[in-house]
Design brief:
Length: 269
Amino acid sequence: MFSFNVSSSIDLSSISADTVSTILDDLSLGATRLADMLVHPFVALDYENRQLSVLPHFVLLSNSEDNILRTCSMIRPRFYNATSAEKENEMREGLCSLTSPFKLNGPIKLPRGDLPDIDLLVEDIGTGTVAICELKWGRKPYLASEFVSRNAELVKGWDQLRMIQEFVQGNPQFLRDRGFLSRSLGDYTRVNYLLVARDHLMWIPPSWGRAIVAFNPFKAMLQKADLSAGLGQLLSYEWLPVEGKDFKVVVESMTLNGVTLRDEVFSRI
């Protein structure tokens, strides 16, 4: 463990004193922070937070990008929301850059201000198949409360997908007239509406042509030759991991001073 004085660290840095103080405050373990030194590696040794300690092992083992997002989501939500929107753009750009036999478009603005954009539109002219997608890239949950908020983001995406579906089904010529589709939506053999989730997934039962899928299986599907067959396989959910086949769960015990804790540990097979 190393300890240092905050004033000394500010003097050694070429960054402004205010910026260094803010960075150290964000990375310091305290009452308003997560109790985990992988996220907040600096621990105060005095009440004024002027003397800090750090264990290099925690810093070296941590995921810095994920920790920055996690910290922003807790204490700087405005910056986190802006970063999340940018990550969804990055998600779409990565899909559109694939070598795919299908026509990919997005984002597509809908005419009413209360409607969300169509994040991604996929068309397979050969099989008469269309996938209309809402993309959500949520940071991996850390605490139970974060599972609740990440699930809420997906529920919001599901509702946005419903709004998109209602609009395009009520206006089947809209996407064709603007050059995004080759024909009217009603002339396609198959149309699916997908909520594509990355890093966090919750189960939402498919309904009315809408379904939730994970990013990686969806990405793999876009590189196949038949979109209709690919969607059929994707929506069979055979890509979901199965206990005993893809992973195992072992209950492990740890005892200290006569107190035993038991926890489920998941591992690959």
